[in-house]
């Protein structure tokens, strides 16, 4: 899953990005509203963390423009303001959730997990597909109750397919959502990670749909 963090405080930006990357996400960053708006407008993010008080273009204006342009990406706004009217303004602009500063990083992670679950139609933090279970809180993956050790990229790939199970996902979509913008992207590596996951989870867990992409489904043979 690929996220964007738009926060002008360099230290806080770095802390949020580090926490999200440690949790297994690919993360891009911006430090002003104009750059944040451009990235959110041109890149396919799964969720965005957006500060309200930004230079060049404030967060509310950024969010309003995204929504006017038809962008439906879940957005978690950050605000140092404690007035209820500012929170209402954020929701009216199209925010999906908010966190007031100061905050604990665990709250950011929990709210991002919730946004991603809701966006893909899942109610629980545990994603299940046949015998495969992925706990988005701990990052633990099991097959028929046995824990499976995955690399960070294998986990990202499985998590994306688990969030979108039952739908064919193209290789291009996977590349766009598994790597940040600075990563040297090569769609051929997706095949490598799929092959590794099949060895660890079972050869029939991820199906190849010729010419279209990959399908993870509990109904797979």
From TrEMBL:
> Where is the Response regulatory domain positioned along the sequence?
2-116
Checking SUPFAM superfamilies in the record gives:
C-terminal effector domain of the bipartite response regulators (SSF46894), CheY-like (SSF52172)
Q: CDD domains, from UniProt?
A: REC_OmpR_EcPhoP-like, trans_reg_C
Segments of the chain annotated as binding DNA: 124-218
- GO cellular component terms, semicolon-separated: cytosol; protein-DNA complex
- Which terms does the UniProt entry file under GO BP? regulation of DNA-templated transcription
**All residue ranges annotated as the OmpR/PhoB-type domain in the record:** 124-218
In its UniProt record, a GO molecular function of this protein is:
transcription cis-regulatory region binding
One Pfam family hit: Response_reg
Residue numbers carrying 4-aspartylphosphate: 51
Question: What are the UniProt keywords, alphabetically?
Answer: DNA-binding, Phosphoprotein, Transcription, Transcription regulation, Two-component regulatory system
Q: Which residues cross the membrane?
A: none
| Protein name as it appears in the record | Response regulator transcription factor
